[in-house]
Write a structure and sequence with these properties.
1 helix, seven-stranded antiparallel sheet, mainly beta
Length: about 300
């Protein structure tokens, strides 16, 4: 999920490999962009002014908002495409909606819950993370399950949801004690990245090309990348002390990253993008001032292209 205020897109049109050939194409949008999702040749974009569908083949743009559709709200925090190609939108405090390509179905049960992030799991259950002590909601197609704070989970601000290849669900967010909550075989367990600090946050999860789960976050020692070794143990790199991979923390304390085809970590930095090679340990940075005019806040990739959203 990408919870940031950003005003235009830049498409980095090169294969996510070791090649240096790059071409930047700019796509401007009046609304602030919150999230990306890919469906074949379409890029779906959640914004503070509704939803945009961009056709990467012919550059056609279609906008969905409250004036021309049944989308439940104006500010769309996240967007997800399930295995049946249904598009799920969470509209801040206005609830959620599903779009099957023709019709919208709205769900009012989460209205006012401040949904921030959406996940679809292997069993096609849809998970929704929320803010302000509202917990996590799961919809199985017929009924809702509510995991409440603090009786079920330990995160009172849920920023990220992720499922690994073993069907384990990771929830990350802001917590005084256990900022990573793990759901496995119907049971929650809890881990912390720093036992000395009561203000800890986990903002994002991603999987590398070997199926290993990583997380980004912040604790008393600064920003970190966390590599899971199994479920309950991990290796932490405090990246604030590692030149070249200093993740940028905006007003929403979000740090996004992903892995390219050769297992480099591409991350948001304070001055642009960082490409960190896990094999060699070398980091190279694309400075925003040389390639695009504003700071980077959000990332997504489709078939060989990197989408970059900036803050102005």
């Amino acid at each position: 999920m990408k919870r940031v205020l950003i005003f235009f897109l830049v498409l980095l049109a090169f294969k996510l490999s070791a090649q240096n050939s790059q071409q930047w194409l700019s796509f401007y949008n009046a609304a602030s962009i919150q999230a990306f999702a890919q469906e074949n040749n379409f890029i779906w974009i959640a914004t503070t002014g509704g939803v945009i569908r961009y056709n990467t083949t012919n550059s056609e743009i279609i906008r969905f908002n409250k004036n021309n559709s049944d989308i439940p709200g104006t500010r769309i925090n996240d967007i997800l495409i399930d295995p049946n190609n249904n598009k799920w939108f969470c509209a801040s405090s206005a609830g959620i909606a599903k779009f099957d390509g023709t019709n919208f179905t709205t769900y009012d049960s989460l209205a006012g819950k401040h949904v921030t992030t959406i996940l679809v799991t292997h069993d096609q259950h849809i998970w929704f993370g929320t803010l302000y002590n509202n917990g996590i909601y799961v919809y199985d197609g017929n009924a809702w399950t509510h995991y409440q704070y603090p009786s079920d989970i330990k995160i009172f601000q849920v920023y990220a949801l992720f499922e690994d290849t073993n069907n384990v669900v990771y929830a990350g967010g802001y917590s005084g004690d256990d900022e990573i909550n793990i759901f496995q075989n119907g049971t929650w367990s809890f881990i912390t990245t720093d036992t000395t600090n009561s203000a800890k946050k986990v903002f994002y999860f991603a999987k590398d090309n070997n199926g290993i789960v990583w997380a980004s976050g912040y604790n008393q020692q600064g920003g970190f990348l966390l590599k899971f070794i199994g479920i309950s143990s991990f290796i932490t790199t405090h990246i604030n002390y590692n030149p070249g991979i200093n993740l940028y923390y905006g007003s929403s304390f979000q740090s996004e990253f992903l892995f390219d085809a050769i297992n480099r970590i591409i991350s948001v930095t304070s001055t642009g993008l960082s490409f960190y090679d896990l094999t060699t340990g070398q980091a190279n940075e694309i400075n925003s001032y040389n390639y695009f005019p504003y700071k980077v806040y959000s990332l997504a990739k489709d078939n060989g292209n990197l989408w970059v959203a900036t803050n102005n």
